[in-house]
TrEMBL record:
The lineage of its organism: Bacteria, Bacillati, Bacillota, Tissierellia, Tissierellales. It holds the Pfam family ROK. It comes from the Bacteria. Belongs to the ROK (NagC/XylR) family. Signal peptide: none annotated. This is Glucokinase.
Length: 300
C-alpha cells in the first residue's frame, strides 16, 4: 500500500493543499483564500480547514508545509520575517498544528524551497546538477539547489531570500524593512504597483498583462517588468553560474505575455548567457504542495 502525506503550500493570496502519494500524484485537493491581511489566527484557521478536508477518512503518514518567510526547519517555526502574511513572524507553525493533529508528524520549510524540491524531484529540474528557483507570486521567493548539498538554507535559515536582494537602491519600501527589494519590482503585486504609479488606477496583474497590446500604460508597466526581471536573471547567472534558473509562482500563468521578451533581454544584455538555461517550472501552482509532501516523506 503506497503511503500518503498532506502537502500544504501557504501563500499571501491562497492556500493550496493536496493529499499526495509517494510518487507525487495528487489524490485529493483543497484550496482556500489565505486571508493573509487578517493575520495569524485567521491564516491558521484556514490551514486547519484545508487539512481537515484532506485528512478525512484517510491514513496520513505526515504533513509538510511550505510557508513564506525565514523558516527554522528544525523547529518548524517562522523567524523574524514572515513574508506577505500579517503577524506571521515568530509563528510556531508546527506547535500550532500539533495541538490539532496530535499523532501526525509535521514538517515546515520555506515556500520557495518546497517548490524547488518538487521541481528537482519530478519537474523541470529533474536530473540537473544545480539550479536556482525563483517563485514570482504575491512576493518573490528563491531556492538554491545542488546535488551535493540539496537545498541551501544558510547559517541562520535566511539563505536564498532572492526576493530581498536590492534592485533599486532607496527604491520602494518593502515589507521586510529594506527599500528597493527585487520583490517590489518583479512580483505580481509589483506590476500592479507600477501600473498604479503610472495611471492612478488599480488593476490585477493578470489583467495588466492581458491589456498589454491595447493599453499604452499597461505596455509601459510590462516593459519595465520585463527589463527588471531580465536584469535580475543576469545577476543570478553571474553570482551562481547554475545549470538552470527555474521560474515558477502565480505570475508564470501569464507567461505568454512576457516570457520570450525576458529571455531575449537576458541573452542580449548578459556578458555570457551561455551555460545557464532559463526554464519555466513544470508544476506551477502544484509545486509547493508536492514539494511539501516530499519533505514530509523524506523525514519520516
Amino acid at each position: 500500500m503506497m503511503r500518503k502525506a498532506i502537502g500544504i503550500d501557504l501563500g499571501g493570496t491562497s492556500i493550496y493543499g493536496g493529499l499526495i502519494d509517494e510518487k507525487g500524484n495528487i489524490l485529493k485537493r483543497s484550496i482556500r483564500d489565505s486571508q493573509a491581511q487578517q493575520g495569524r489566527e485567521k491564516v491558521l484557521e484556514r490551514i486547519f480547514q484545508v487539512i481537515d478536508e484532506l485528512i478525512e477518512g484517510e491514513k496520513v503518514e505526515a504533513i509538510g508545509i511550505g510557508s513564506p518567510g525565514f523558516i527554522d526547519v528544525n523547529e518548524g517555526k517562522v523567524l523574524s520575517i514572515g513574508g506577505n502574511i500579517k503577524d506571521w513572524a515568530y509563528t510556531d507553525i508546527r506547535g500550532e498544528l500539533e495541538k490539532r493533529f496530535k499523532d501526525v508528524p509535521i514538517f515546515v520549510e520555506n515556500d520557495a524551497n518546497v517548490a524547488a524540491i518538487c521541481e528537482a524531484w519530478l519537474g523541470a529540474a529533474k536530473g540537473l546538477h544545480s539550479f536556482i528557483m525563483l517563485t514570482l507570486g504575491t512576493g518573490v521567493g528563491g531556492g538554491i539547489y545542488s546535488q551535493e548539498s540539496g537545498i541551501w538554507h544558510g547559517k541562520n535559515y535566511q539563505g536564498a531570500e532572492l526576493g530581498h536582494v536590492i534592485l533599486y537602491p532607496n527604491g520602494r519600501q518593502c515589507n521586510c524593512g529594506q527599500k528597493g527589494c527585487v520583490e517590489q519590482y518583479i512580483s505580481g503585486n509589483a506590476l500592479e504597483k507600477t501600473y498604479y504609479e503610472i495611471t492612478g488606477r488599480k488593476l490585477k496583474g493578470k489583467d495588466i498583462f492581458k491589456k498589454f497590446s491595447e493599453d499604452e500604460y499597461a505596455k509601459k508597466a510590462v516593459k519595465r517588468y520585463i527589463e527588471d526581471l531580465g536584469t535580475y536573471l543576469i545577476s543570478i547567472k553571474n553570482i551562481f553560474d547554475p545549470e538552470a534558473i527555474i521560474i515558477g509562482g502565480g505570475v508564470i500563468n501569464s507567461k505568454e505575455y512576457w516570457w520570450n521578451d525576458v529571455v531575449k533581454y537576458y541573452k542580449q544584455n548578459c556578458n555570457n548567457p551561455r551555460g545557464t538555461t532559463i526554464l519555466p517550472a513544470k508544476y506551477l501552482n502544484d509545486s509547493g504542495m508536492i514539494g511539501a509532501a516530499k519533505i514530509a516523506f523524506d523525514n519520516i
